[in-house]
Amino acid sequence: MRFVFKEDNRITRGITAQNLRQWFIACVVFFAVSGTGTWMLNLETSERDARRRVDLVVQGTALRSQMNRELNRVLYLTSGLRSYLVVRQQTLEREEIENILAAMYGESQYIKNFSIAVGHRVAYIHPLTGNEKAIGLFYPDMPEQWNAIKRTIDSGKPALLGPVNLVQGGTGLIYRVPIFINGQYWGLLSSVFDSKLLFEAIFADNTANGLEVAIRGVDGLGIQGDVFWGNAALFADKNVQLIDLDIPGGKWIMAVKPSKVGEGRNILWLLQGMVWLLALALAFSVLIVLSQRTKLAQLALFDPLTELPNRLLLDDRIDRAMTGLRRDPSKTCLLMFIDLERFKQVNDEFGHHAGDFALKSAAHRIRATVREADTVGRWGGDEFLVFMENVDRARISELFDKIRKAVEKKVKYRGHELSVGVSIGYALAPDDGRQMDELLRVADERMYADKDTRNAAR
User: What is the DSSP string of 71-127?
Assistant: First the structure.
């Protein structure tokens, strides 16, 4: 009986140990699969949120551009009138000024009125109908607006103020331009926007397409300013995307958010339940797919061979620079189009790996030649693009020579010396254009002219 007892105990202990191992492996598999799957789903959620935020940034940027276009139409008009008043301040004629204001009014869709204050008192206004209460208005008697007006006059710079309640009724944004003559304050030029009409026209389509928008920053005070359009609670929402809007004399903050947030949550929970039932092999496959997604995200913005920005990222950076250039035309931007010569010969003679090495070497040398803030990207094939802001025109030729010498210097590859030539075309903004397509066309033409010149010299 003892022997049987011992044997039974051994068998029992063996079965128990095997069961424990099975349970342990089962637990490891379960936690590995559930943990990996949960991690994958969390990353998918993060990617979903990232894509949503990118979409929001794109939509917000489009709204910002549309807003800037509408505002700039009036800014250009008022800048001309400002110069006129400075020149003609001794010989102003009411009829002439009223005709000018009427012409400006006809050019602006969202303008309620234009007015000119001599000193602090409104002396001219158009249209007069509906704005009679504003004639003779003395700004210091308006506590709601006077502090912002005084701040604008003291700074000597134009500012977009409001929205404010207008004495003639309604609300409006007011673009105020202080006028100084011989260093002394002379008066104030004001352009009153119908803010409700302007914002409804800009945001109507986006609201209909499921986008919530709110703006804060009364009188250009940015995040410190009150909310004057949309739901103020939007700024406390974690799903919101904030977009800066630079305006004359300050800043607005725009909050954008999809009306329907959380779609697909039920599907994610269903997938979470399925993950708990999957095998380890499936979890491992998910990790491979996730790795591929990460690589694709990198490839979306950068060239995999040279690790330089690709066309998508180049377009975005140049477009933003062109937007800034339109606000400050005194700046100079340089676009260089660089084409490698004899690259096909390197490929044919030494193979594609050698050609890839030559491309990477050229990319590295171009990047090392220009400033850290400059953008160097691969346009395609053996073509590179260099975009530079705030360029010293006198040093452009010197820069071309540096790039040419750097790239044309021979490189060694597996015992061979590789040599490529360089043709460079360029375009200056705003001289040669204010759009990327215009600059590319000019730079491309000059690159081919440079290629022809170098071929003729050989």
Answer: HHHHHHHHHHHHHHHHHHTTS--HHHHHHHHHHHHHT-SSEEEEEEEETTEEEEEE-
Q: CA-to-CA distance for 274 and 271, rounded, in angstroms?
A: 5
Residues 132, 137, 139, 145: what is their CA dihedral angle, to the nearest 10 degrees? Answer: -20
Give the pLDDT confidence score for residue 206 in this predicted structure.
65
The CATH topology of domain 311-457 is Alpha-Beta Plaits (3.30.70)
Closest CA to 134 of 158, 97, 110, 165: 165
Identity of residue 277: L
DSSP-derived secondary structure for 189-250:
EEEEE-HHHHHHHHHHHHHHTTEEEEEE-GGGBGGGSPEEES-GGGGG-TT-EEEEEEETTE
Beta bridge partners of 302: 309
Domain 89-196 in CATH 3.30.450.20? The answer is yes
CA–CA gap between residue 21 and residue 33 (Å, rounded): 18
Q: Which residue has the tokens 């990327």?
A: 436
Q: How far apart are CA 415 and CA 305, in angstroms?
A: 22
Radius of gyration over alpha carbons of the chain, in Å?
33
Whether residue 163 has a cis bond before it, omega within 30° of 0: yes
- How far, in Å, are 65, 243, 329, 348 from residue 326 at the CA level? 12, 20, 6, 46
CA 330/CA 200 separation, integer angstroms: 34
Query: Strand order of the sheet with strand 227-229?
Result: 227-229, 211-216, 250-258, 241-247
Whole-angstrom Cα distance, residue 126 to residue 103? 10
State pLDDT tens for residues 272-301: 677 667 666 665 555 564 456 656 666 778
Give the integer Cα–Cα distance in Å for 114 and 191: 5
CB of 337 within 8 A of CB of 424? yes
| Model confidence, pTM | 0.48
Structure confidence by residue, pLDDT tens digits, 298-349? 677 888 888 899 888 888 888 888 888 888 878 889 999 999 998 888 988 8
Strand partners, 422: 340
Distances (CA, A) of 79 to 110, 313, 426, 455: 18, 35, 32, 50
